[in-house]
Amino acid sequence: MSKVPEMQRRNQDSEKYYEPNVISFGPYHHDKPHLRAAGNIKPICLRKFLADSNQDIEDLYKKIESNIKAVRVCYDTLAMTKNNDEKLAWMMLLDGCFILQFIHRSATEEYMSNLLRNHEIRLVELDLFLLENQIPFGILRLIFEGAQFKDGFTMKYMINRFVADRDGILPAGYGRGLPQLPEESSHLLHLMRIALRPSTKGFLTDISFESNFFRGSLKLPQLTIDEFTHTRCLNILAYEMCSEGPDDYAVTSYICFLGSLIDDADDVKELRSRHILSNFLGSDEEVARIFHEIANNLVDPAIYQEIEVLIQKHSYNRLNTYMNYALYYRCSAPGSVIAFIAALLMLYLAMMQTDFALPSHKSK
Questions:
Q1: Rounded to the nearest 5 degrees, what angle is found at the Cα of 14, between the Cα atoms of 225 and 40?
Q2: Distance between CA atoms of residues 135 and 116, nearest Å
Q3: In which region does residue 269 sit, left (phi positive, over 0), alpha (psi from -120 to 50) or beta (all else)?
Q4: pLDDT 10s digits, 192-223
Q5: pTM of the predicted model as reported, rounded to 2 decimal places
Q6: How many angstroms separate the Cα of 263 from the Cα of each of 56, 269, 271, 296?
């Protein structure tokens, strides 16, 4: 399980964006004072999950204990020195059962209001997708593969649905067609990121640009921006920067590209008017600020360089500039017919200038 690279910690408020608010999973933030209260409900959730899934605690413990060496190599060596095999196995069992019970209760819309307050439930949803707050997905699979729920749901379906229904950086409408749970998932954050990869049509990386005569069309996926977007973006970006993380930099590239489109609140307003952004934060200024902070100090892997070049070529075309000026500004003003004719004359003069400029350049 990766830790946030030091460069990211220096550039961002590490405690605010990378450390759990309510509950810890795994060894990195285990037993921190402000997380102990929620940690005390883990045994309750374990017993409830075992009862709901019709499983035996000793059988599950033995399965995890037999794989404990594989668990150890997933974490930082220093963190492992503080936990012997027995302690680590119980930690994985308690944390895994809490996570699965939380997801199960969410999927059946029962939630956990008898154990957590509403604001704490929302913060647990955020804590579940922090880079340093993950447990191996293989452990979750060991726990849920023998589960038998009376409500008829499979745990695979519930995990897919849970990830799909989370707000924030995920595209609006994600979850209407649930993806299959991939075998290669490392943890829940990895599973969330998988939904955003370039191979997934209709998601973050579904971007294209077409230049049609005088008009250009940039197609972007719809995005929901809420109070969790900042944190989830930063944790996925940190995951992509890790040496053992994915090497396609898909989300990093997308954030860099979107950051190049957003300079201020007016740009956010334009994206909202085109139904690209759904802003649940309140002000457009806040959305612009968040994208500036997220994209700060990122190195653009240039996956979208070809699209950026196409946009620049279209924007630098003087004929396109004059025609857009004529169509979108002049025709909406009083005396629009005269103004439109004047704009066409400007366009004709520009064409004449272009015609003459090319031969004179060649004759040099």
A1: 90
A2: 22
A3: alpha
A4: 887 665 444 445 667 888 877 667 788 887 77
A5: 0.81
A6: 56, 11, 12, 13
